[in-house]
Amino acid sequence: MRKNKKIRNLLSETRLHPDDLILPIFFDERLSDVKTTASMPGVKTFPLKGYGEIGHNIEDSGVSTVLVFGIPGKKDSVGSEAFNERGVVQKAISGLKENSDLTVIADLCLCEYTDHGHCGVLDKDGWVKNDETLELYGKVAVSQAAAGADIIAPSGMMDGQISAIRRALDDAGFKEIPIMAYSAKFFSAYYGPFRDVAHSSPDSGDRAGYQMPCGNRREAIREIELDVAEGADMIMVKPAGPYLDIIRDAANSFDLPLAAYQVSGEYAMIKAAAANGWINGDAAMMESLLGIKRAGADMIITYYAEEAARKLRL
Ligand code: PBG
Ligand code: ZN
Predict the structure, then answer these.
(1) 106: Cβ below 6 Å to ligand 1?
(2) 141-197 residue pLDDT tens
(3) Among 4, 16, 88, 286, which has the highest number of CB atoms less than 10 A from its own CB?
(4) Helices (H), strands (E): how many in the chain?
(5) Is the CB of residue 111 below 6 angstroms from any atom belonging to ligand 1?
(6) Is 3 part of a structural domain of the chain?
C-alpha cells in the first residue's frame, strides 16, 4: 500500500487545500515602506498603500483569505485607535476589499492599540476591567464591519465578548457578519515573535489573567461551549501544534467550523531550524500543517499560508 506516491496519495486520509489556509497580514500606519522582522522570517509588515499589489500577490499564491492586524501611530490607555473609523486597520480592511477579491477577517483586540499593551482597559491596580472592555470591543467590531470586513475575529479572551460583539453588530445593522471566536486561546510562550511584529507586548504583568492555562483540557471545552451559546459562528483553538488534543476534542464536540492558529512561535521555530540546516523546512512546514488538519481543524491560520499554497499547487 506504500509502493509509490500515487498509491500513497490515493490512500491519504487527510489532505491540505489552499482554501483551508488563512494568512495573517500586518499593516503599520507609521511605515512608508515594507518592513521585515528578524524573528519572523518572510513575514512583511505593510504601509497603508499598495493594496492592489499586496492582494494580487496573495491571491496569486492560491490563498483567498487573510486575517488583518493593524499597528497604530499612537496608542492610549483605552486603545482609541482600534475604533477610529479612519484608523489603521479600518483603512487596511477597506483598501484590501476595494482592490482585491480576498476574504478579509478582522482580528479584534486592543493590545496593539493600548499604551500598556493589554487586551483590555485596566483598573488602577493593573487588572483588566472585563465589562468595560466589552463596550469597546463592540465599537471596534462595528468600525471593522463598516470598513468592509467579512468576518470579525475577537482574540482578547474577555468573558462575554461574543455576545457583546454580536449585539453591537446587530444593533448597527451588521446582522449578516459572522464571528470567528478565538475560543480556546491559551496563555502561551509561542506568541513572542508576533509581539515583535505587532508591538503588542504588555509593559507590565502578563496575559495569564485572561488567557487559558495550558494544562486545562476540560476548561477549553467550557470556553468553546460559552462562545457557541453566545452566538459564535466559527470557533478556534490557539496555538495549534502544542494543542492538537484540544483541536481533536473540539472537532468531536462541536459541529461549527473549526479554525486552528499555528502561531508565530511555531512558525519561527521551524524557520530557525531550517535556516541552520537542522531540519528540512519545506517538509516540516507541510507535516506541521497536515498534523493540524488531521487533528480536526477545518481551517488553519498560518504564516506559511502563501508558501504552503504554492507548494500544494505544484
Ligand atoms: C492579540 C493576538 C495575539 C496573537 C493573535 N492575536 C497575541 C497575544 O495574545 O499576545 C498571537 C498570534 C501569534 O503569535 O502568531 N490578542
Ligand atoms: Zn490582545
Answers:
(1) no
(2) 999 999 999 999 999 999 999 999 999 999 999 999 999 999 999 999 999 999 999
(3) 88
(4) 11, 10
(5) yes
(6) no
Nearest alpha-carbon partner for 265 in 307, 303, 293: 303
Torsion angles phi and psi, residue 124, rounded to 5: -70, -15
**Could you tell me if the CB of 43 is within 6 A of ligand 1?**
no
Separation of CA 39 and ligand 1 centre (Å) = 15
2 domain residue, yes or no: no
* Residues belonging to the active site: 185, 238
Count how many domains the chain has. Answer: 1
Examine residue 110 and state whether it is found in any structural domain, yes or no: yes
Residue 44 sits in which domain range? 9-313
Give the domain CATH number at 50.
Answer: 3.20.20.70
pLDDT at 222 over 90: yes
Count the helix, strand and coil residues of the chain and give each as a percent rounded to the nearest 5. Answer: 45, 20, 40
Atom of ligand 1 nearest to the CA of 191: 14
Residue of the CA atom closest to atom 9 of ligand 1: 191
